[in-house]
Amino acid sequence: MGNSASITAARAGVVSPEQRAEGRRAATMAGLRKVLLPAGTAGAALLIWEVTVRVLQIPPVLLPAPSAIWAKLDQLFLPLILKHSIPTITESLIAFVISTVIGIAIAGLLSSSRLLREALYPNVVFFQLIPKIALAPLFIVWLGIGAESRLSFAVFISFFPVVIATLAGLDNVDKSLLRLCRALRASEWQVFRDVRLPFALPYIFSGMKIATTFSIIGVIVGEFITSQAGLGYLILFASAQAETELIFAAITVLCVFGLVFYGAIALAEIYLRRRFGA
Amino acid sequence: MTAVADFLTLNGVSKIYRSGRSEVHAVESADFTIPSGQFLSILGPSGCGKSTLLSMIGGLETPTTGQIRIAGSPVTAPREDMGYVFQDATLLPWFTVLNNVLFPVRLRQGRTSAYRERARELLEMVGLWDFRDKRPDELSGGMRQRVAICRALITDPDILLMDEPFSALDAISRDEMNVALASIWDRFHKTAVFVTHSIREAVFLSDRILVMSRRPSAICHDVTVPFGRPRAAQIERDPVFVQLCSDLRDQIEEGHRA
Ligand SMILES: Nc1ncnc2c1ncn2[C@@H]1O[C@H](COP(=O)(O)OP(=O)(O)OP(=O)(O)O)[C@@H](O)[C@H]1O
Ligand SMILES: [Mg+2]
């Protein structure tokens, strides 16, 4: 027995420090490439934009140059844009959290009951097909023009992707693991907690990543139709004043927020997957 | 545990899988009794219904006819005092080796600390204690299967059911695993039902072998293995061992033709 253990230990592979350092260097290079290449492409695109606007002398009302947008952002961020960013960001985050929780809960419910699933799942899919943005005005009819209607609408459009992705994960679980659970007399809840949910984790995160974008879209659309504040409102206001630079400045803030938001979820995923090895 | 002569009994057990119009007679009829403490192998060609028979004993499938009793009570669902080892290790990829071994305890009573010492003992016995914090995907196939065996033994079951646990392994690791299982057996000495289609494996491990034929898929031979315990790998060279293997091969062939 002692023998066989040492054989398998050798088989598991002992890597020398040099090999490990070499491997790390290669991984760092690959990582840098993954970041630098798209960043470089984006930078080049901005440069082309800047040059094109200057050379063709496109009027700033139609398309301001990136440098002009940056100047506007610099000038108005503290006095104006920040004030409007805060409600948009807060509401998007709240909508995202609510959609994630509701989405996972509904998926859990659907996967645990055959009856519920057969009754609801086709309807969920059908709902997916509705162009949900068209329903935004209804939320104002129902809930008024406050934050409630914007939040509900944002949740309404962003929890579907979480449900669909989570359900796919919960259902795709390795059948042999379910058989093991049955042999061990695990309860439905235990199977959910220890097998289905960890298995579904990568799926859930893919749904959550979509939900980050959708919750921002939901809040912005809500602001377009009702609000007196927020970046959506600011964009609409700037467009009425033909302040194209301000529109782009607001959009820039939205982009940065979206990027950070998505990045935070991606990092959380890496952390959790490393932690749970899923 | 004092030996019980009829610890596990099967009475006219059969299983027919129906799907639409077609019927598969997976197990035609099985009648046998095993005393507690016996290591029984079920040997037969692929598709003869070994796994079906084992999952009925384990309460994972319901017999179409007949009855299975363990320690006097009919089997209707998986029993608490049963350990099951499947063909593939079926470890949870998100748990460490140690937590996989403790998984049945976690399901049963939530807290696992009382069983840590036992888990350590089991993992040390199979040479994997140093790997306790690794994840299953960092282990070789043989190591994973050893973890699965430890997991089946953690709650100290009275009966251990194993469905070709080593069939996915290469010949060398397989021999290694047979020796490992035999030595586990010398220490734990429960009742075991072991499914395999390897004749050598069956003879090396068991006290008794039931040979199943393919059509009708029933038990056609009941063979007692004359070796005592503990067993060393060397008994495979014993003429009695070799003779027994060739007899079993003949019986399987005969079952094939019938
Ligand atoms: N769930 C099922 N539904 C329908 N038929 C099944 C099912 N499970 C097994 N069978 C059929 O029952 C027969 C016996 O299958 P079983 O898996 O018990 O054989 P086995 O002896 O374990 O084979 P192997 O050595 O290849 O694992 C086969 O013909 C198989 O097709
Ligand atoms: Mg089988």
Structure write-up:
- The complex is a heterodimer of chains A (278) and B (258).
- Chain A is mainly α.
- Chain A folds into 2 domains: 2-51; 62-276, MetI-like fold (Orthogonal Bundle).
- In chain A, 85% of the residues lie in helices and 0% in strands.
- Chain A has 10 helices and no strands.
- Chain A has helices at 2-12, 17-56, 66-112, 114-129, 136-143, 147-171, 175-183, 188-225, 231-240, 244-276.
- The longest helix of chain A is centred in the first third of the chain and has 47 residues, at 66-112.
- Residues 1-13 of chain A have low confidence and may be disordered.
- In chain B, helix 7 packs across helix 8 (239-257).
- Chain B is built from 8 helices and 10 strands.
- Chain B has one domain (32-61, 73-257): 3-Layer(aba) Sandwich (Rossmann fold).
- Chain B is α/β, with parallel strands linked by helices.
- In chain B, 34% of the residues lie in helices and 25% in strands.
- The interface between A and B is medium-sized, with 30 and 36 residues.
- Bound molecules: adenosine-5'-triphosphate and magnesium ion.
Looking at CATH, the homologous superfamily of chain B is P-loop containing nucleotide triphosphate hydrolases
How would you write the strand order of the largest sheet of chain B? Answer: 6-7-8-3-9-10
Which molecules are bound in this entry?
adenosine-5'-triphosphate, magnesium ion
Per the CATH scheme, the topology name of the largest domain in chain A is: MetI-like fold
Helix percentage range of chain A: over 70%
Number of domains of chain B: 1
Shape of chain A: flat
For this structure, the CATH topology of chain B is Rossmann fold
H-E string of chain A: HHHHHHHHHH
The number of domains of chain A: 2
Number of helical segments with 4 or more residues of chain B: 8
Query: By helix and strand content of chain A, what is the structural category?
Result: mainly alpha
Shape call of chain B: globular
User: What quaternary form is this?
Assistant: heterodimer
Low-confidence regions of chain A: 1-13
CATH fourth-tier homologous superfamily of the largest domain in chain A: MetI-like
Describe the biggest sheet of chain A? Answer: none
